[in-house]
Amino acid sequence: MQFADRLQPLQVNVFADMDRAKSRAKSTGHPVVDLSLGSSDLPTPPHVLEAIAASLQDPSTHGYLLFHGTQAFRNAAARWYTQKFGVAVDPETEVLPLIGSQEGTAHLPLAVLNPGDFALLQDPGYPSHSGGVYLASGQVYTMPLREENGFLPVLSDIPEAVLSQARMMVLSYPHNPTTAIAPLSFFQEAVAFCQQYGLVLAHDFPYADLVFEGETPSSVLQADPEKNVSIEFFTMSKSYNMGGFRVGYAIGNAELIRALRQVKAAVDFNQYLGILNGAIAALEGPQDTVQVAVNTFRERRDALVKALQQKGWSVPTPSATMYVWAKLPEAWSQCSIEFCTRLVEATGVAVAPGAGFGKSGEGYVRFALVQPPEVMAQAVEAIAHFLETP
């Protein structure tokens, strides 16, 4: 049986390898403490569940849901966005519901790229960003993110030969995995750059609320309020602990929204209307549960950083996201995958190898703050013992 060439770049998946390593650890009797996946363990707010439960009793919600049936959700998303970032949004032409923001970032290349076109992606970056480019038969040009540059790409380093074939740039701040935050001035630079070279600017924005110190991170549309080149992707997974419900949305340039809607229409309808009713309740209801999540992840961050530093592993204290991005000890600086697979098989503690996020992630690991402080402290004890073992 012969398969499409576009599947070739998708065959290597570090996280699938890690999943097998976790299974091997379980088979040898190790209880696995999984700090490798950024899936919130916090509960969905009760008022959101109540809205979904009420919808279940309404037969009118049980059928296919087409675009015009999503108007109430689009209105709520537009109001939330304008209130938070001060940019006007037309819910009819500038908002599109998504089955999680990953659907949007994966499908956008199908609407923007022709075979052979380049997409400019962050390295390290979220793995699904490249997956969508490969499915569109595009090429990936990676923009290295260096600690000395605040984990921001240096746009002037991108070769003109690449830019002549490029059609889109994908950014994501606060950043997974490095936890960096981009200032508004950088987004203004990126918008001007994309306008100069005729690029679409896509910004994946799942951690808009998960900030521990300082002000709310900037939206890219604050740098492009006329939405000339930009589209931004949001998810309900992080702020509202709705990962399993698979609901997000895109806001941005009306032509991009229309093109993404065309791709979406060829692939699926929308999720169950009751889920969108729950998302409306989340966006328009009390926001204290968002602060509870922020406080919880801050407490876990502080506990993990303190425990690692007490063991002699110097790591920075992140100001956003639900991760800690840690430079590996020198002995493991070029083998993050081997470190992570051997660690979980020896101790049951799973963390994510930096190399899984791109070449520039080598030498790092990512801890996800998805366990209580006391569990993470025990995990650090196990890691310290592993590092001390010849």
Overview in brief:
With about 400 residues, the chain is of the alpha/beta class. The chain is built from 13 helices and twelve strands.
3D architecture notes:
The protein has 390 residues and is α/β, with parallel strands linked by helices. It folds into two domains: 139 residues, Aspartate Aminotransferase, domain 1 (Alpha-Beta Complex), CATH 3.90.1150.10; 238 residues, Type I PLP-dependent aspartate aminotransferase-like (Major domain) (Aspartate Aminotransferase, domain 2, 3-Layer(aba) Sandwich). The protein is built from 13 helices and twelve strands. The strands form three sheets. A seven-stranded mixed beta sheet has the order 2-8-7-6-5-3-4, with helices on both faces. A three-stranded antiparallel beta sheet has the order 9-12-11. Helix 7 links the parallel strand 5 and strand 6. Helix 11 runs parallel beside helix 13. The radius of gyration is 21 Å and the shape is globular. The relative contact order is 0.18. The model has no long low-confidence stretch (mean pLDDT 93).
